[in-house]
Amino acid sequence: MANPHKTSAELEEYVVKDAPPTVYYVPAFITEAEEAHLLQQVYRAPKPKWTQLSGRRLQNWGGLPNPKGMLAEKLPDWLLTYTEKVSALGAFAGKTANHVLVNEYRPEEGIMPHEDGPLYHPTVTTISLGSPTLLDFYRPVDQTQTGVLQTEESRYMLSLLLQRQSLLIVQGEMYEHYLHGIRGVAMDTLTEHVANLSLAGGHVGEVVPRTTRVSLTIRHVPKICHTNLLLGRK
Ligand SMILES: O=C(O)CCC(=O)C(=O)O
Ligand SMILES: [Fe+2]
After folding, report:
1. Does 122 sit behind a cis peptide bond, omega within 30 degrees of 0 on the bond before it?
2. Is 170 within a domain?
3. Which residues form the Fe2OG dioxygenase domain (predicted)?
C-alpha cells in the first residue's frame, strides 16, 4: 500500500522496517557544528522561557497549541532553518512546520508514556542533541481486558535508539495507536527490541550512557488563529 502521507522518495531509505508503519530514522541529519550552534541558541534563551516539569524542562516556540487553535508566533531564525529543512523532506505532506517544543532531559530524567494527540496529528519529528536515548513505544491499555493487570512492562512493544544529530519522523499507526515515553534511567541497554539498531549504529548488549539531551520536537499545528482576527473581534 502506498504511504498516504506522501513523504519524499529521499526518505524511503530511512524507513524503520521492524516497526509498525511509519517511522523514519535519519542518522546525522545535522552536523556536529549545527548541533553545537542549536545547543548554544537553546541555552541563550532567557530563563523565563523554560518551563520546569517533573523529570524535564521545556521551551515552547511558535505559540501555545490548544483545541481552539494556536495563536501563532513567528519562530526565531535559528529554528526556522530546521523547521524548513524538515518540511522540505515532505514530512508534513507539503505543509511547513510551525511549532517547536524543546525538551531538556538530564540523566535519569524522562517522559511518561503518552500520546501526542490530535493537536499535532498526523506527524511528529524530532531532532536529538547532546546525548543518545532510547525512545520506548507501548501498546495502549486494552479496554476489553478489564480483568487483566496491564503493566507498562506487559504493554512494551519496541524502542528506537535516537543518536545525537539524528532526525526521527513518526506518522500513521505509530503516531495514532501507540504511546511513547523515555525511561528515567542513567544508561540504556540495547536489546533486540531496538527496531532501528543497525540504522542507528548500535549492537545488542551495548550499554549507552546518557548525558544531558535536548530534543527539538518539530510539528505542524494545523489549527491557527491569527492575532488580527482576534483583535478584530468585539
Ligand atoms: O524528547 C523526545 O524525543 C520526546 C518528546 C515528546 O514525546 C513530546 O514532547 O511529546
Ligand atoms: Fe510525545
Report:
1. yes
2. yes
3. 96-222
Pocket test residue of 57, 101, 126, 179 for ligand 1, highest count of atoms within 8 A of CB: 126
- Domain holding 214: CATH number? 2.60.120.590
Position in ligand 1 atom list of the atom nearest CA 135? 3
Split into its structural domains, the chain has a count of 1
Interface confidence (ipTM) of the complex: 0.99
Q: Answer whether 125 contacts ligand 1 (Cβ < 6 A).
A: no
Exposure letters 95-119 (e unless 16+ CB within 10 A, then b): eebbbbbbbbbbbebbbebeebeee
Q: Is residue 123 part of a domain?
A: yes
Structural domain includes residue 4: no
Between CA 153 and CA 15 the distance in angstroms is 26
For the full predicted model, state whether its pTM sits above 0.90: yes
pLDDT in tens, 70-83: 888 999 999 999 99
Provide the pLDDT confidence category of residue 233 given band limits of 50, 70 and 90: very low
Q: Is 131 in the pocket of ligand 1 (CB under 6 A)?
A: no
